[in-house]
Design goal:
Elements (H helix, E strand, L loop, with lengths): L1 H25 L14 E3 L2 E3 L1 H4 L3 H30 L9 H18 L18 E4 L3 E4 L15 H15 L1
Length: about 170
């Protein structure tokens, strides 16, 4: 069950990366919509029309970026839950790469937890404070001056690094 949930989070993360990249290209360069809004949706007594669903190309670009942002929180949360269940003493584990992956997932989860659309690094764990956390050649987070800063994708190596870290966790644990 936990592995299925982690894999589902990975699929959502991949989709959000792809949508964000496509929206950046399509909406940014071609100035056209990514989606065709010529649809109506009815569920029970509620309905949404094409006009109610419509986003401008610029709004699609913002929305896909926001989706990727929220998906980062979800995948880090699921990595944290998965390792909590299956990695004994995960924050002091003997395997440095595994331990650092667990710490990175936890501090990212914590940053997003209280304000997913405006995450702030709050590094309270002594195991992660003022450290260089690295997992093989997959991801590196230097927490030395992060506490209190707004989370930027460059802090953790962009979405690709999070996806690779999740794959590493699945293969290792």
């Amino acid at each position: 069950m936990y592995l299925d949930i982690l894999e589902t989070a990975e699929r959502q993360y991949k989709l959000s990366i792809a949508l964000n990249l496509q929206a950046g290209y399509t909406c940014g360069i071609e100035k056209k919509n990514l989606f065709d809004y010529n649809i109506n949706s009815i569920y029970g007594k509620y309905g949404l029309t094409e006009n109610e669903l419509f986003l401008t190309p610029e709004h699609e670009k913002i929305a896909t970026s926001t989706l990727l942002h929220c998906s980062t929180y979800i995948i880090c949360l699921q990595i944290d839950r998965y390792t909590e269940k299956f990695v004994p003493n995960r924050f002091s584990h003997g395997d440095m790469d595994l331990r650092n992956a667990c710490l990175i997932a936890r501090i990212l989860r914590n940053a997003f937890a209280h304000d997913p659309l405006n995450p702030i690094w709050e590094i309270r764990m002594p195991e992660a404070k003022s450290k260089l956390l690295s997992v093989k050649d997959i991801i590196t987070v230097d927490t030395t001056n992060l506490d209190g800063q707004r989370v930027k994708r460059s802090h953790y190596g962009w979405p690709h690094a999070i996806l690779k870290m999740s794959e590493y966790i699945r293969q290792t644990v």
